[in-house]
Specification:
The protein is an alpha/beta fold and about 325 residues long. The protein is built from 11 helices and 9 strands. Helix content is about 40%, strand content about 10%. The strands form 2 sheets. Strands 1, 2, 3, 4, 5 and 6 form a 6-stranded parallel sheet that branches. The protein has a 3-stranded parallel sheet with strand order 7-8-9. β5, α5 and β6 form a beta-alpha-beta unit. The radius of gyration is 18 Å and the shape is globular. The protein starts with a strand and ends in a 7-residue tail after the last helix.
Length: about 325
């Protein structure tokens, strides 16, 4: 089983066919960065059209059992998520609405302070806000996963403590391996995983040691050492693949509507666009290189199967339904 915990590609028939060629059974797909509720509904509509156009390649995913159906019918199940709480605006009632529409993950922040928590680029981390506590409770109730991939340390640890259901960091790496504001300290990873949550390892070059020059051996050794420290059962892949996106999209991701200036985030003024992907992971057909690399650094077949999809499958099965009934 092969499940990717996060992608934001420029979707097309080509990419859908590459997912099938790569044997990708399910993907968590970002459908909102800074969009309002209405704008996010338009993104749901766009995906409904893709499901209509390519029913032999993709299907909408709502529960883990949809992954089973996708595997049986040779398709990829698509699960929706937000990288920002902007789709719920300032209305807690929209949490249930977006879940009904098909959302299954929502980040509490995207780099900046939100109404719910503090992002990893803020100078001061004040933790989960009053509204954030209420929204986490509501997300737990309906089955919308708390994602803290772009959140600051205190906020992430508090979210793991406050949430009555396991949370996720869908796409990041240990900061001890690759220092970056977006990567996570051991304290953060421990707080999430010891409560049943998931860490998805990112393949985005700004999150990797040596960036685009990172080797598959280095990446897989990092996963193996993380497993030594925190156990294998709460680790997966969250590639953060942004395939075929124009550079204007990374500006939207980083800036949204909050600034008149270009914010280069983890990049630099000399290279404001998307960084080139490493040669061993260009698209969805390359996940096999990771599986082979994990075996090469000493992980067993069972451990590799868990990291490549089995752990995400279990997490999906436990997380997407109403509280007490996943």
């Amino acid at each position: 089983m092969l499940i990717d915990g996060l992608q934001y590609a420029n979707w097309s028939e080509k990419i859908f066919r590459q997912m099938r060629a790569g044997g990708v059974d399910a993907v968590h797909v970002t459908i909102a960065y800074h969009e309002s509720f209405r704008e996010t509904v338009l993104n749901f509509e766009a995906w409904n059209r893709w499901f209509e156009l390519y029913p032999d390649l993709i299907m909408k995913g709502l529960t883990a059992s949809d992954i089973d159906q996708a595997r049986e019918t040779g398709r990829t199940a698509i699960f929706f998520g937000f990288q920002n709480p902007s789709p719920i605006e300032d209305d807690i009632g929209l949490v249930e609405i977006v879940h009904t529409l098909g959302a299954r993950f929502m980040q509490l922040t995207y780099n900046n302070q939100s109404l719910l928590a503090t992002g990893c680029y803020e100078a001061e981390d004040t933790g989960i806000t009053r509204m954030g506590r209420q929204v986490i409770k509501e997300m737990n109730r309906v089955g919308l996963v708390v994602d803290m991939s772009h959140s600051a340390d205190r906020s992430t640890i508090e979210a793991a403590e406050i949430s009555e259901r396991p949370i996720a960091i869908t796409h990041a790496n240990p900061s001890s391996w690759a220092p970056a504001r977006r990567n996570k300290s051991d304290d953060v990873i421990r707080a999430v995983t010891e409560r049943g949550g998931m860490l998805g390892f990112s393949l985005y070059p700004h999150h990797l040691k040596d960036g685009s020059a990172c080797t598959v051996e280095s990446f897989c050794e990092m996963i193996a050492r993380t497993a030594d420290t925190f156990g294998t059962s709460h680790l997966g892949i969250g590639s953060d693949l942004c395939q075929d996106q124009p550079d204007s999209v990374v500006e939207w991701m980083r800036v949204g509507r909050w600034s008149k200036d270009i914010d280069y985030g983890e990049g630099s003024a000399a290279a404001p666009g998307f960084p080139p992907m490493q040669d061993w992971f260009q698209d969805n057909r390359d996940f096999g290189n990771i599986a082979d690399g994990l075996r090469a650094v000493g992980m067993s077949d069972a451990e590799v199967a868990s990291v490549m999809g089995g752990n995400w499958y279990r997490f999906f099965a436990e997380s997407f339904g109403p509280e007490g009934r996943a």
